[in-house]
Specification:
This protein is an alpha/beta fold and 266 residues long. It is 38% helix and 20% strand.
Length: 266
């Protein structure tokens, strides 16, 4: 990046951290979280507010737990439509796992080995300290991953490619395909047509022509960097040697109104 773009990225990241700090300190949300946790039988530790905000943009424990459960349910349903059940899986990779909003729900459904990777070392440190069921590692902003070829039966990236520029998305799709076993599944959630109304006129024109719209690419990997994927682009350019099985508009339960995309490695 140029010095000007370096400065722009620095200030954008600083603003993001300040906004996250303010949301994490919201006393109303913190009181609501304490009341909620008194009433639920949650076995695994729940991340503190500042960790939740980095992942979900909010410190709401109820939504953190419920959205993760809904995401696993939606993925299980997608696999079931292909004749695969959670207990058929041997190894699962949560790519962009954060503090395991989703992965924490798999052990009740399957004995598969659970692995989570994330670009944020603080999220991974929390997982390593508090979640004994999985293996957790930090990845770089760009590939590779430290896994052999054909390591996983299921890989999912929920609201991950939505925060990367297109070149990085392609690089990761190729890498995820590498570590996916033949016959295995890659499941993505993406900002699709539901979000078209949020785009500017210029962005809508690009979206309607089948192009990905990317905002704030200089802060790739953060929630501020946002990508919007038209279905035509998914179908024409995102298969990357995989077979597209399903594209369900606004179908990614637990990631509201994002499209759910299921691909398979032949």
């Amino acid at each position: 990046m140029t010095p000007a773009s370096d400065r722009s990225a620095f200030f954008a990241r600083t603003r993001l951290r300040l906004a996250e700090t303010m949301r994490a300190a919201n006393p109303v949300v913190l009181r609501r979280n304490r009341r909620y946790l008194r009433d639920v039988a949650e076995v695994l530790p729940v991340p503190p507010a500042h960790v939740l905000v980095q992942v979900a943009g909010a410190a709401d424990v109820r939504w953190f737990l419920e959205s993760g459960r809904l995401a696993v349910e939606a993925m299980s349903d997608a696999l079931a439509r292909q004749g695969t059940e959670p207990n058929d899986l041997h190894a699962i990779l949560d790519f962009g796992c954060g503090c395991c909003r989703v992965a924490r729900h798999w052990p009740s459904l399957t004995d598969a080995a659970i692995t989570g990777v994330d670009y944020n070392p603080r999220q991974i440190a929390w997982c390593r300290r508090h979640l004994p069921f999985g293996h957790f590692a930090v990845n770089d902003l760009l590939p590779p991953l430290a896994f052999p070829d054909a390591s996983f039966d299921l890989i999912y990236a929920l609201s991950v490619l939505t925060h990367l520029p297109v070149a990085a998305q392609f690089a990761w799709l190729d890498e995820l395909a590498r570590v996916l076993r033949p016959g295995g599944y890659l499941l993505l959630s993406l900002h699709g047509a539901h979000y078209r109304a949020d785009l500017s006129a210029e962005e809508r024109d690009a979206f309607d022509r089948g192009n990905v719209v990317v905002r704030h690419a200089t802060v790739a990997g953060t929630n501020r960097c946002t990508s919007f994927h038209p279905e035509a682009f998914v179908r024409s350019q995102m298969q990357r040697g995989l077979t597209l099985i399903e594209h369900i508009p606004a179908g990614a339960a637990g990631n509201p109104f994002q499209d759910q995309v299921l691909l398979r490695k032949v």
